[in-house]
Amino acid sequence: MNEQDIQEIVKKVMASMELSNSDRKLGIFDDMNDAIAAAAEAQKVMQKMPMDFREKIISNIRKLTIDNAELLARMGVEETGMGNVGDKILKHKLLAEKTPGTEDITTRVWSGDRGLTLIEMGPFGVIGAITPCTNPSETVLCNSMGMIAGGNTVVFNPHPAAVKVSHLAIELVNRASLEVGGPANIATSVTKPTMDSSKTMLAHKKIPLIVATGGPGVVTTVLSSGKRGIGAGAGNPPVIVDETADIPKAARDIVNGCTFDNNLPCIAEKEVVAVESIADELMYHMVENGCYVASPAEIEKLIGTVLTPKGLNRKCVGRDAKTLMAMIGVDVPSNIRCIIFEGEKEHPLIAEELMMPILGVVRAKDIDDAIEKAVWLEHGNRHSAHIHSKNVDNITKFGKAVDTAIFVKNAPSYAALGFGGEGYCTFTIASRTGEGLTSAATFTKRRHCIMADSLCVR
């Protein structure tokens, strides 16, 4: 081991010690106004940075995310009680590797007899972001990279149930900047995020853009703020399986997608619509892949446990199948990954987005009936939908009918985020406002720069 290796080890140890001690409040303020003011000052520096310097910061965010993936995952599960550590580690590594950076910021150009025109992507300034408890640190880190790539800084109002892990992610973003010579406070937040701090952010004159990732209530609030809003709201993604599908593979893919991080991702399969002729075979293979077929009596108990007069029982969200069954007094083997049952599309555990590994199966007469039921179940959220089929006409017909931001064919739902599929990663999927899978380009304004009667030398 040479001197340089020793120095690198010392740096890592010191960084780890600092992370757990004095700098744990890096970017965190007691008052939202102070958090916004600090981010505004940092944005003045950020806007003047060359693109390659922004990329240095983003590259270091990627590195620190991977280095701290297990810590972030464990903190997230411990604080929220949702999901599982193994899948959250994978999610952090995925976002570190596949979230677009400055390569997403491009310039269009054309010239003609009357001169030259450029269309540049410029920053909004300070972006306000509301983040969820389902994917807290993932959303903070993913959003930060995209927003910084566009020359912005960001103020977060995290979900109160995920404050600690969200703050750690914010601190990592600032540490990544400082380590390469960038400014502090490129991402900020408040010690105790509340509805009041959110209102302050929504109304602040230095916040021109609000990005909300969460339930329908928070997105509606943002879109009613009078400011430009990007809303990543709810979904209830159906998956169709028709008679042409590879049934064993479809079953495996559906179970893998539905159970990933205990069904917390908003894109995950929430219910199955199976053509009658293959429904029994599909359920057989789902059982082979770790599903438990709940009895009608057990399903009734689950309804009373999972659903409350005010909506989902938060103690059930993101829990594993064994835990959910234990809540109704049923002990199942530890290898059970998902609870399945048959029901009509109106069944409360099918029509409602659950965010837990309970998967209802709805039978359909044929593909047209399946599409009609799946479109109804998606509830017009235009978020995500999936299909297993080898019939291109069926795939095309469903894709046009459901009209979602994400449409996965013959793969687990998470293929949409570049995990086992082509594409990039994001945890802010703006179906409601139409941006779809957000990236760095989403967080920029288009600016036309015109030079009349000059610089055309053709």
Strand residue percentage: 15-25%
Question: Roughly how many Å apart are the termini?
Answer: 59 Å
Oligomer: single chain
Biggest β-sheet strands, sense, barrel: 7 strands, parallel
SS-derived structural category: alpha/beta
Q: What top-tier CATH class of the largest domain fits best? A: Alpha Beta
The residue-averaged pLDDT reads: 92
Supply the number of structural domains. Answer: 2
Number of helices, where a helix is a run of at least 4 consecutive DSSP H or I residues: 16
Strand order of the largest sheet: 11-14-15-10-9-16-17
Overall shape: globular
Number of strands: 20
The CATH superfamily name of the largest domain is: Aldehyde Dehydrogenase, Chain A, domain 1
Estimated radius of gyration? 23 Å
CATH fold-type name of the largest domain? Aldehyde Dehydrogenase, Chain A, domain 1
The low-confidence runs, each spanning 5 or more residues with pLDDT under 50, are 9-24
Q: Which CATH-level-2 architecture of the largest domain?
A: 3-Layer(aba) Sandwich
What does this structure look like?
The chain has 458 residues and is α/β, with parallel strands linked by helices. The chain folds into 2 domains: 3-233 and 437-448, 3-Layer(aba) Sandwich (Aldehyde Dehydrogenase, Chain A, domain 1); 238-423, Aldehyde Dehydrogenase, Chain A, domain 2. It is 43% helix and 20% strand. It has 16 helices and 20 strands. The strands form 5 sheets. The chain has a 7-stranded parallel β-sheet, with helices on both faces. It has a 6-stranded parallel β-sheet with strand order 1-6-5-4-7-8, with helices on both faces. The protein has a 3-stranded antiparallel β-sheet with strand order 2-3-20, with no helix packed on it. Strand 5, helix 7 and strand 6 form a beta-alpha-beta unit. Helix 3 crosses helix 7, helix 10 packs across helix 11 (276-288) and helix 15 (367-378) runs parallel beside helix 16. The longest helix is centred in the first third of the chain and has 17 residues, at 3-19.
